[in-house]
Amino acid sequence: MAAREGDVKMDIWYLVFFFLLHRSSSSDPQNGHIMNMDAVLGLVKELESTMPDSSAQDLAKLLISSSTPPSSFPEILNAEQASLTHALLTHKVVALKHEGWHEQGVVLAPDGSTVAVRPLLDAILWGWKVDCKRETLQGEDNYSSLKLGKDDRHPTTLAISLALGFANSEVSLEAPLDFSSGCWDSISMPKTFPLQGPASEPDLTLAYINGALDGTLLREMLIKDTQKMSSLLQSYYWGQPTKSAFRRQDFQNLLSEGNLADEIRKGINCYREHAGPHNLRPITDERLNSIASEVAKKFEQQYLDCPAVIPRCLWEAMPYNGTPTLLTPPLQHVYIHHTYEPSQPCVSFQKCAANMRSMQRFHQVDRGWDDIGYSFVVGSDGYMYEGRGWNWVGAHTKGHNSVGYGISFIGDFTSSVPDARILELVRDRFLTCAVRSGYILPDYTIQGHRQVVDTTCPGDALFQEITNWEHFTKESKE
User: Fold this and answer.
1) Mean pLDDT of 441-448
2) Looking at the whole model, is its pTM more than 0.90?
3) Which of 50, 52, 68, 444 is most solvent-facing, going by the fewest CB within 10 Å?
4) What domains are there in the chain, each with its CATH number?
5) How far apart are CA 292 and CA 284, in angstroms?
């Protein structure tokens, strides 16, 4: 019997797709794609134009089911869309020859953070909690793929990721929580995301956590107001400031007391029930409860409570001139500044990063300093920016640079103060986390720049604000 023309075309399409899939997956599934959130939004808009009645959940299901064969997507996606979908949703950490460790399936968001797309879509569909009747690594209705192994797919929820990441890990619960991250090869044309080192838990990278939290918050937005996927993404990632910059605080607001530990415990039990106890290290119920409680506590205190810090490489800092002088934390003092120039608060990553580069040029070229003077800088976009950081002596408060950190708010705060949420970011989160991390002493003092140097910094309004902070001291200039 002769083959029908449509069947021949479909067979050819499948051959083309599997050739493209094999070619990209054999080395790098990203295969030269620009890996930013604009690429995700562009793909979503293209699909919405061909499927105008599709909901956000419909598109999430389509993209997940289309990311790996077998799938029906050749009927819907063209070859370029299929290749991009595969690149976006193939999330894994790989060691590339001569290039170190890279994280694939992640994108650069407009707020400057890096987000894994697969857990984002998973969370939009299934949330962050554990549903043991449904929970699998692929979000299917069976447990055939629920195994621990290097090549297995990611769990579908944040709770089960945390559960498996620590229940079956050699990582000590006493060690600080460390989610692997890195820096993009380019901010304007991001294609690869090299990590700073190997990920101890590939399912628990910073990008994975960001994606899981974002998907959870997007799901909440859909519950309150049904909308298209494209408008959902735009309202979350493209505001000024963006909602995504506050993902940690907003996710924390969803938690009730104890429910994160409860969900982690459920995740471990769910895994034991369906995958079999032989797939976990021997673990008693007492140990299970201890792991769940400790992981939940560490995740909240060391991640959710802490603000994200944009590293030097992401705001495209120039190298330090010479060799930095090292600090010896914990330090006793924190000095508050405002930049004065730039005078306008920055409310986007692009603007704040540009301000950082401008200040660094001014400090290095005009003033002849080794680097930008501040230890950390505060944007009104919801992020802290790394200046000289925790370990290098700064040039922020003359005569006091080796005994304290200089934190500067971008803007002129002579007659106004930063938004309440930005003040809270520093006062209640950044400084608290610095104490927990051992960078500043528990009895640290806060002073305005003007108290120790002859200057009007940090502006009358901001100085009046910090006089109400718990650790403020009235010591005058020496």
Assistant:
1) 98
2) no
3) 52
4) 33-57+92-305 (no CATH), 331-466 (3.40.80.10)
5) 12
